[in-house]
Amino acid sequence: MDWREKCFNPFNKIPKLSLKLPKNSLFLMFQSSALRHPDSLPTYRLPLVWLFVFFIAIDSWQQTAVSCSIDETIVFLLCVLLPRSGPLLGMLGLLTGFAVLFPAAGDLLLDSWMTLAIAVAFGIVARRFLLRVEWQLASQNVLAALTRTGDTESADTVIAKSLTMLREYAVADAAIALRQLDDVTAEAIACVPATALPSPFTSPKIFAEALANNRCIYYWDYPATPGANRTLVAKKAKSVAVLPLSAPAGDEVVRGPKPGAIVLLWYQRHRVSDYFQNFTESVLGGLSTILRFHYATFRLEKLQTRYSSILQTIPQGVVFVDASGEQGWINSVAAQQLCLTEGPQEATAIADAMAKLRSRAQNPQEIAAKAGDFFSKAEAKIRDWEWVFSEPDRQVLNLSSTPTLVRDVPGRLWLLDDITDRYLNRLALVDRTAQLEIANKALQLTQFSVDRAGDAIFWIGADAQILYVNDAACFSLGYSRSELLSMNVSQIERHFTAEVWPLHWQTVKKCGSLTVESQHCTKHSKLFPVEVKVNYLEFNGCEYHCAFVRDISDRKQVEAAIRAEQEKSEKLLLNILPQSIAKRLKQRERNIAEAFAEVTILFADIVGFTQLSSQISPQELVYLLNEIFSEFDRLTDLYHLEKIKTIGDAYMVAGGIPSPRSDGAEAVAEMAIGMQEAIGLFNIAHGHSLSIRIGINTGAVVAGVIGTKKFIYDLWGDAVNTASRMESHGLPGCIHVTEATRKLLCDKYVFEDRGVISIKGKGEMRTYLLAKPLKK
Q: What is the pLDDT of residue 674?
């Protein structure tokens, strides 16, 4: 389904008329929905029906000679009442054929044929005349019904009613209202009487021609029409009528509704009569006028509401009085100030309220001085006319008045602005300026000595404004004295922002003095560290901060160098000792020794490294050994184990120290496997055939730091010796473990029983070779 078909989905919801007007049946006169249709002659139908009944009654009571003229009258009435006179014309044809076949009765049939033909002809002419009148009356009734919608109903309601009536008069299956949209929106939309013209629609092809020529277009066989809309054809629309709704004149100026069209659909082929065409054109003309009126009314009401809302929301009081003095208007703010009701007011009431307000002012001389100029000139304008009040509350009003001319109606506009806060702030500013002048005179007494001080000195007010600086401050910051005196302290001191300054001021005021380290910013945006000593002072009733600022760039450089050396020492110490042990040593703790109940110790020795050392240079030997041990160190960090030491080509690592852990044996086993893999990769990379013997044992040990120079964190105990014997009695490329270690790892790894072997210094022991992890 493309976008056009989606936009036509509302067609599925359009209710079809359940009752259609039969075209060739007397049943037309007895259908309830068709009785109002112009084709049924609703104005003349009842008198003609009664006349028809009257002549039938006379025909049944009179002689045959009289009934002949009565039959002609009945035929005439039937031709007038029936929607089509086809049956009567057929009857005349039968009579003519009968007269030709039977000449003996020709004279009688010829007379009857002539009288009936005249009656039919007069009946058809009379029906056409009455139909023209009925359709004209129908258009008048439709326009009257649309006009009676009233101002309270929207244009949508008018369109909805027009759709309903047009569909009934056209005997259409559906009536649709379309509006023009932008080019990227859907092609059209269906609109039932509940909704009409809801939004601007794109100019679809279905009514583009009707809009271009501004005339109604009727398609009797719509599927055969070139460029027929696929959606309408898919909906099985056989006949279509497009009635254009053109946009109002000057649309670009008034921005009125977009043009559109009303589309009538028939699911059977339907020929539109001339009467209906005249009817639709008349209705469309009146409908366009009504829609323009509705839009103009809506636009005017919206403008009035908008302007009224604006005037009601502005903070100033607004008073308007026309030049005749007959009418005035005030908004809610002015109503509160003048003690009146907002909205229209008599001009005299406004004048009395203004006079009462003026009588309460506390500056009558100033008011009278401006009033003389104002009342002597009709076109005078007033600005900044201040009325000061002290009762019931302190208030100052600033009045402005200017003549206006709105639609040739002269008047005068008053604005009453409450400037109480601004007026009081201005007075306070004047007082404070005088106080600052006194303070500045006093500060000049100390200026000479302060200007020659080596440290930068600042005097700062409670509002963070810089009030005084010495020469050292100007030199360190790169500003002139006048520039610094026009700046705020936050412009050179990044920590003293507008949010932080009040808290800083109160802290210094409470403590009396405060020393902090901060950074100052020079004129060229260069930051340098400073030490600021701030003192709180009161002088001539004013509060100040006196700040002594010293450049500590050199000191900071020394501190940074010391800190860097400390970090190097810290890093070096952590490379030698565990972090927890190093921390205890820095706290000057001596004789560090701890006992651990379960520690897993690994000894590893590189097989063939001694022979290799005699074949390569010392530099290359150290390089290769460093590469191997660096990879072992990486594995130590990976499994969170503690490297104890290296002796020649031997490597010792332990799990479970200096912090006990339950998975220490498993971590050591994983590292042993990783060490074997690392040796294999090393051989591949360098073309050597080295192997590694690994011995592992688990047991109790004592760990601690010995010595005062080149001290080392080491392990002691029988478990350490046994782990060393496991390595020396092991096999190259194998991981040799004791019974204690196997018990901890038996459910995680596969072991090969080596049997009972003789261990130097230990006697007979059962040992095992760790083969591989168990499959999970």
A: 94
d(CA 83, CA 320): 67
Give buried/exposed letters for 140-166 (b at 16+ CB in 10 A, else e): eebbeebeebeeeeebbbbbbbbbebb
How far apart (Å, rounded) are the C-alpha atoms in residues 472 and 457? Answer: 7
pLDDT recorded at residue 90: 53
The rounded distance, in Å, linking the Cα atoms of 86 and 555 is: 121
Structure tokens at 649: 């080509």
**CB-based contacts of 234: which residues, under 8 Å, 6+ apart?**
5
Residue written as tokens 């030997």?
A: 621
Cis status of the peptide bond prior to 732, with omega within 30 of 0: no
pLDDT in tens, 92-114: 555 455 445 545 444 555 566 66
β-strand 691-706 against 735-738: which pairing, if any? parallel
Residues whose CB falls within 8 Å of the CB of residue 196, separated by 6 or more in sequence, listed in order? 155, 156, 157, 158, 159, 160, 163, 177
Burial 250-284 (b: 16+ CB within 10 A, else e): eeeeeebbbbbbbbbbbeeebebeebbbebbebbb
Q: Which two tokens stand for residue 384?
A: 């900044």
Q: How far apart are CA 266 and CA 239, in angstroms?
A: 5
Q: What is the pLDDT of residue 768?
A: 94
Q: pLDDT digits over 358-378, tens only?
A: 888 888 887 777 776 666 666
Indicate the pTM of the whole model.
0.38
Q: Which pLDDT does position 743 carry in this prediction?
A: 93
For residue 369, give the 3-state DSSP assignment: helix
* pLDDT surpasses 90 at 438: no
Cα–Cα distance, 56 to 51 (Å, whole number): 9
Token output for 739: 């019974």
Q: Which residue has the tokens 């509705």?
A: 294
With beta carbons less than 8 A apart as the criterion, state whether 276 and 135 touch: yes
- Ramachandran angles phi, psi of 13, nearest 5°: -95, -5
Strands (E), 164-245: 174-179, 217-219, 239-245
CB atoms within 10 A of CB 59: 17
- Cα three-residue angle 385-413-361, rounded to 5 degrees: 30
Q: Chain-centre distance of CA 314, in angstroms?
A: 29
Angle at 602 between CA 668 and CA 631, to 5 degrees: 70
The pLDDT, as a whole number, for residue 200 is 35
For tokens 């009431």, the residue is 349
Phi, psi of 316 (to 5 degrees): -85, 155
Which of left, alpha, beta for 308 (phi over 0: left; psi -120 to 50: alpha)?
alpha
Bridge partners of residue 776, in order along the sequence = none
